[in-house]
Structures are given as C-alpha cells and as structure tokens.
C-alpha cells in the first residue's frame, strides 16, 4: 500500500514540475534565427545603369522587360544560390545582399555585377588567377589595398579577398573608380577592369577598341537577364 502511495506521489510531483517548466520555458529558444530580409533593388539606379551599358539596345531588352519586378532581389538570390560551389551556398543570402546594397551605393545594376563575377570567377570564391587575382571579382592584392585605402574599406592582406562579401565590396569600389575615370563609357571602364586603365588608353590612342573582355561580360549580362525573364511571373514572385 505504501509503495502504491509513493508511486502516486512521485507521479504528482513529476506532473507538477512538468507543468511549471512548460508554462515558464521560453519557446524562443526553439525558434530558428531570423533570416535577414533581402533589400529591394534600387530600380532607378538599375535602369539608369542598364541604359548606360546597353545604349540604344536597352529598348526591347530583357533588362527593360523586367522593369518594376519587385521579386528581382529574390531572383538575384536564386541565381547566386545556384551558381555558388556547395561549400559556399550557406553564404548565398549574404553575398546577394552585398551585391544589391553595393550596387545601390554606386548606382549600378546588380545583374551587371553578377555578370562580372560570372566572367571573372564563375562564382567560385576560391579561384586564384595566373597574375595573383583572388576571389569572386578576381582582384590583385596590391590593387585591393590601394582601393581599400582610397574608399576607406577594411583590408587585412590577401585573406580579406578570400571573403566573398569583402571581395565584392572592393571589386565594386574599383569598378566605380574606373567608371568615373572613363566618364561612364561602359566599354572603356569595363575593359579597364580587366586590363587596367593605362592599357585601355594605349589601345584607344591607336584607334583600337578594347572589346574582347567587355563582350564577354555583356554576353553574360544578357544571358543572366534572359534567364530571369524566362521565369514565369508567379515562379519568380514565389522565390
């Protein structure tokens, strides 16, 4: 009989403790961390830069067709997510947010930035070029150090360029610098990103247009936009 009463008592105490824990435990401990919201693409800057890049070819282009698409930021995230190596896919949202925010900062089209990354590294942050270029936007350490000082960006040697977001920030600052140097003439500043401003000026002095690299970037730019616009509207909006 005593054993029976003891079991009942233990069961009662256990139930009481469980109730207290249940009512007082903070369920926020079980919630997943909040995912940072994706910034919206600055549509005015995107359109202005697309017109700068495409000139008369903007009218009727895929860049024009997507005007006003509110889900463009999510389409950019989706593109980054699918292109990154498996090791870096967990950083896709951070990388996409960096592309969008830095594009707004410098008045650029974020799809153009993706095109440069595609051309330079095929979205592989681990790539090292034959001349020492590092990361997504393939930047030389000496160029990166100079740009970082000029634009007051953090820089701690080569390892800084191994960070995808830091690499993009420095690469875009450099592109912005070149864009100003060449009076927003797309073919010139895009080419200068690859061969340097001095070499571009030498070619221009000989009446030679530096078209090869620019053509590759613009081809990727066109393909990226084509991929985005080929998505069904409800599919893009749901991304």
Automatic annotation (TrEMBL):
InterPro entries: Lysozyme-like_dom_sf, Transglycosylase_SLT_dom_1. Keywords: Glycosidase, Hydrolase. Residues 99-207 form the Transglycosylase SLT domain. GO terms for molecular function: hydrolase activity, acting on glycosyl bonds. Gene3D superfamilies: 1.10.530.10. Its EC number is 3.2.1.-. The keyword Hydrolase applies. Belongs to the transglycosylase Slt family. This is Soluble lytic murein transglycosylase. It comes from Bdellovibrio bacteriovorus (strain ATCC 15356 / DSM 50701 / NCIMB 9529 / HD100).
């Amino acid at each position: 009989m005593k054993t029976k009463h003891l079991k009942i008592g233990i069961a009662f105490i256990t139930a009481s403790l469980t109730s207290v824990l249940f009512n007082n435990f903070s369920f926020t401990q079980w919630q997943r961390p909040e995912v940072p919201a994706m910034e919206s693409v600055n549509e005015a800057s995107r359109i202005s830069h697309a017109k700068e890049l495409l000139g008369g070819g903007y009218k009727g282009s895929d860049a024009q067709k997507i005007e006003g698409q509110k889900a463009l930021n999510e389409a950019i995230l989706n593109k980054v997510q699918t292109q990154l190596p498996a090791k870096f896919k967990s950083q896709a949202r951070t990388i996409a947010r960096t592309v969008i925010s830095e594009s707004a900062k410098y008045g650029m089209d974020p799809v153009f930035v993706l095109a440069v990354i595609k051309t330079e590294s095929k979205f592989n942050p681990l790539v090292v070029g034959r001349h020492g270029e590092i990361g997504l936007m393939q930047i030389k350490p000496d160029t990166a150090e100079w740009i970082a000082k000029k634009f007051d960006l953090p820089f701690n040697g080569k390892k800084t360029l191994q960070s995808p977001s830091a690499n993009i920030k420095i690469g875009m600052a450099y592109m912005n610098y070149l864009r100003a140097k060449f009076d927003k003439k797309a073919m010139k500043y895009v080419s200068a990103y690859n061969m340097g401003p001095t070499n571009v000026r030498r070619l221009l002095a000989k009446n030679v247009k530096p078209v090869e690299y620019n053509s590759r970037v613009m081809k990727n730019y066109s393909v990226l936009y084509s991929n985005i616009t080929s998505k069904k509207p409800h599919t893009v909006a749901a991304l």
